[in-house]
Every structure is written in structure tokens, then in C-alpha cells.
Amino acid sequence: MQWHRFLQARPRAYLGRGDGSRRALALTFDDGPGRATPALLDALRELQVSASFFCTGAAASQHPRLIEQLLREGHEVGNHSQTHADARGFGARDWFAREVAPAAVSLREAGLSENPRLFRPAYGEIDEAQFDVLAEAGYAVVGWSVDPRDWLEPDAPGYVSCVVESVLARIHPGAIVLLHDGDDEQGRSREGIVKIVRQLVPALRGQGYEFVRVSEFLPAG
Ligand SMILES: [Zn+2]
């Protein structure tokens, strides 16, 4: 999300990467929960990894038990808008009322005990006025620093190793890795994510990385 320059001027409410002094990284999963999420949760549990999930309100309403399960298993949940609409062209308050507030309600109905504190914009699209309305409502906006484009060509041969290699080539201390577990826009399950995580986690651990929830990268205070 480097192309949104205004974000760099707001270090307290925008998180694009974590503190680089510690060999830690955050895996983030967007657009879910979806059909791939149960197997992903199994993998994360076996691998003893806590992660962050940016869920849409629509998917949360469809799969409330998965929201409950991922909270119970120590993951955190952020707001990824109600319908995954592209925010461009919407007035800030109108957009907040249509996309942000309803998603918070859906997430609370699905089991979050308080309003989500983290927001990730659909497609990474957000303007300055929208950002300010989010910050005013107490949200931190979370971007990413490693994007292996796991949504691209999931049926291509070598897809899993290609995504894994892409993360390994770009990883750095304080990385926020962008991945997806929700069904794609054609309604297909993103089942490749499970294999990706099962290969990626041991490889990163082998490089001395620990896995944190992305909120642990927020500045204190
Ligand atoms: Zn998304």
C-alpha cells in the first residue's frame, strides 16, 4: 500500500510493517472465513501459529462458527468491510456507514466481544478522508509488506511452491504477509492456502522467525 503516501505520515494509525529489530512476522488472511478456513485452522493449530484474519461482514454472517473457532484458537479478527466493495468514489462517512459499521456489527454478532480495532481496506483502496474517519472511530489501518499474490492463478502448475518461494524471497523482520483464505470472487474455495501454510511455516521457522498477531506490531500507547 506504499502508493498511498498519506499513510506514511500517520504512523500511529497505519501499520504497513512491524518493528524490524525483532525476527518476527505476522501472517494475515483476508476475505474469509470461507470453505478453506477449517483446514487452515487445523494447520495453524498443528503448527502452533497465531495469525490475523481480516474478515468481511458478509462472510462472517455466513460462517459465524468459524469466527468463534478462530477467536477460541487464539487468532485475531479485523474488519475487511461488509461486502468487499472498492471504496473509491465513496464519500468517507457514507462509506463508513455502508461498509465499515455493518461489518463490525456482523463480526460482533459472530462472536467478537468488542468492536474490531483493525481494518484492512478491500483491494488496499482507501483515501485520506476515509482513513481519517476510521482513525476517529478507533481503527488502525493495516497494510502489508509482503504480497505473494496468492490470488493469482491458483490452478496453475507449481502454484503452491511459487507462492511459498515468493514469500521466502521477500521476507524480512517485521513483515506483514498478505494471504487469502476466503472464497474467491467466483465463489471457489482457496484450498491451496493450506498447503502454502504447511510449507511456509516450517521454512520461516527454520530461518529463526516467530509468528505474531499483527496487532503486536502496533506502537504501544
Ligand atoms: Zn480482500
Automatic annotation (TrEMBL):
<dbReference type="InterPro" id="IPR050248">
    <property type="entry name" value="Polysacc_deacetylase_ArnD"/>
</dbReference>
<feature type="domain" description="NodB homology">
    <location>
        <begin position="23"/>
        <end position="212"/>
    </location>
</feature>
<dbReference type="InterPro" id="IPR002509">
    <property type="entry name" value="NODB_dom"/>
</dbReference>
<protein>
    <submittedName>
        <fullName>Polysaccharide deacetylase family protein</fullName>
    </submittedName>
</protein>
<dbReference type="Pfam" id="PF01522">
    <property type="entry name" value="Polysacc_deac_1"/>
</dbReference>
<dbReference type="InterPro" id="IPR011330">
    <property type="entry name" value="Glyco_hydro/deAcase_b/a-brl"/>
</dbReference>
